[in-house]
């Protein structure tokens, strides 16, 4: 590219004019050598007005991102440990209505589920919410999950060591538990369920997430029996659920059990469906309000520009051409607003994580991408309000006559 | 050379007792390269007539023939293409886009897809030079004086190399000396290019700068006389 050409491009990009070489093509009798975008020039020349609109888009985008982050965070708190199970299905007692709290399986039923459902692998898992004393002696609660070492229910240890079979006084604590309790690997922790009290030693750290809005703690299945029922053996329930691995397992039913997918199991966690509908409603309201605000702002802007639109149409601009300018402005401003809101939301997320009482918030790349795309689509939908006004504008107003 | 034939042209708004006959049975022809003045009191129908010739309004009856093209029969989209490619408008209050420079206001005509001679930038620069606006080419429309704005509007009207230049009260926002100067340069530019021009004005002194003057009253063409051009 020659110096002259480079200077030409720099000049026009600098002036926010999109410049490109001439294209002599069909249907265009004479295409200008310098094609420029009126909508973008208007943004550049009316900075304050468009900056205010961008600010509004940024705030709405930030709000929706935070709502989505909180929604994802709540889901994580509700049962990220369940999602982390190395299983394709979860079998409940057929009397439990897919409630982990109410599900109790006898040794006979639990032992037969794997074969009856046609699973390749199966593992019993017990659940009980138990109290513990944190490093300051304050009582808090956690989700205690009883598993058998060496099965698919065994969590992956990220620090310390794994539990040995029969090591009934050891626990694997999730990092959320360690953070909330102030305890560490090697510490002793006192755990109680009703009148049952036991002491455990934290032998390893895991990263499985939370269960029932509580940090997950893994103990041996027999320790779980003793914690929940005060005894182990054949006289007490063998497990709460059975994890199953294999094909086509969800929907299988048999003697005393029913198997469902992990997503169905997640949706049936007490409180999750209500929480999800609340979060979904907040998201939808966020998008709808976003579309309305962007739409109204650009509609008002378009109303202010009716005389100019009339002139453009009077000199032969098509509705599509004029609408393209508005749409281009909406896309550019929405892109800027969204781009600014993402680091803002991320910074807020990092700040919230530093709070002593953790706010259930989580961001994933998927959250960002989905939210940003949805907001862009929302903004474009909002721009359609203006499209109607563009079509309605009669070019005769350029001659000072009423429509 | 552009020819214009208007035959028994009428425009009626509303119907029945509420009907308003804005233009009634107007007929005239223009000679190639002619500049016409259109005068009459407010409400006499001159702007409506101009709008119909310019494809901004569809006639109720009658015909408008521009170089063999029947304007009254065009669809909305065809009307827009006709305005874009064959008409140059100079509006009453110049109606430049305020956030664009003088040069960019000319470039808009090509940006919307109008044809024209040469590359848009060169053409704009050439027109601005011819109208003595080269030094003001990068000034925003809001920074231009009334006379400069009107000259930019004239240049914009010539940007697509139109068959027909339609001018609506070009001197409304100018004092009489400057107005006369603008109209003279307008006529010179239009006639110099062999285009046909029609100028609506209240000002008889301005109208008489045209080749012929058409007078309207209550929607009818009442008089046709020679100008001084």
Describe this structure in words.
- The complex is a heterodimer of chains A (403) and B (229).
- Chain A has helices spanning 3-14, 38-45, 47-84, 107-117, 175-181, 221-229, 262-267, 272-304, 306-314, 319-353, 365-392, and strands at 89-93, 121-133, 139-147, 157-160, 170-174, 188-193, 196-206, 210-211, 214-220, 241-245, 253-254, 257-261.
- Chain A is elongated and about 95 Å long.
- Chain A contains 11 helices and 12 strands.
- Chain A has a 6-stranded mixed barrel, surrounded by 4 helices.
- Chain A is an alpha+beta fold and 403 residues long.
- Chain B is an alpha/beta fold and 229 residues long.
- Helix content of chain B is 32%, strand content 27%.
- Chain B has helices at 46-53, 76-86, 102-111, 120-130, 146-158, 176-192, 204-207; strands at 4-13, 20-30, 35-39, 61-66, 69-70, 87-90, 164-168, 196-201, 212-217, 220-226.
- Chain B has a 6-stranded mixed β-sheet with strand order 6-7-8-3-9-10.
- The longest helix of chain B is centred in the last third of the chain and has 17 residues, at 176-192.
- Chain B is globular and about 55 Å long.
- At the A-B interface, helix 2 and helix 9 of A face helix 1, helix 2, helix 3 and helix 4 of B.
SSE string of chain A, helices as H and strands as E: HHHEHEEEEHEEEEHEEEHHHHH
Major sheet size, sense and barrel closure of chain B? 6 strands, mixed
Q: How far do the termini of chain A sit from each other?
A: 50 Å
Largest interface, C-beta within 8 A: A-B, 32 and 44 residues
Helix content of chain B: 25-40%
- What is the radius of gyration of chain A? 30 Å
How many strand elements of chain A?
12
Number of helices of chain A: 11
Q: What order do the SSEs of chain B take from the amino end to the carboxyl end, as H and E?
A: EEEHEEHEHHHEHEHEE
